[in-house]
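ok trying again, last paste got cut off:
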Amino acid sequence: MGTLIKAELRKMLCKKSVLITWVASLFLGMLLIHNGTISEIYADAFYKSYGYTPIMGLIMFMILSGAYTVEYDSNMSDLINTTENGKKKLVIAKGIGAGIAASIVNLSLVIIIYLDGIRKANFKDLDMPIKNLWYFKGANSNLNVLQMMIIVIITVIIGSFFFSQLGLYLSAISKSASMPFVFGGLIMGIPYILENILPSKFIVITPLWGMMSSQLIKYNASLWVIVIQGIIFIVSYLIFPRLTYNAFTKENKK
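nice, full thing came through this time. structure:
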């Protein structure tokens, strides 16, 4: 199983288009934070890390869009599907590999922005309450900058696994790489686009805000919203792999 997961990771992360976009995005991420007071720098770091989510989605669904279409195009799925064990192992390996790949990409983009902010603040005042930052103006949280960064890093991992399982399912039900890229991108991007149009109460339970948890804190999301977010993620981890397995094996019975 470990060999299969490593193979899937290499296939997903070592595509030329993915590597070029990823590296370019990392370099751009190091240039986003403006100089200013320490509070302005940290506020900008949270602002820019959320603003970078379209780039995260772009790279993530570039990775995921062809996850199963490659198997269909190469006819490898017929060989893999000769045994039940082979089917299950492939789906599990792709699920784990995709989650790890998405987490690596998204974490690297968030962390590069945070580290640039910390560097420009000369590693000072990481214990500053986030409610002192303009980005969190009106927030009731008692979290400090470092705590908020750590929480976002954790939820980025959780959210990356959600979107990876969604992307794999979309790839499994389509022989076209464009479908998971377009529809997965829309599911992730629509909340970002509608944030300035709709009240936050309509967007607060979206997976994007669950992944970028700084948004939940910024808009004073209630405990029940956070619980719902957790339920959405847990249920998706249980349901999407099963749906993906069924779609992949069904496709090859036609």
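cool. The mean pLDDT is 84. The longest helix spans residues 84-120.
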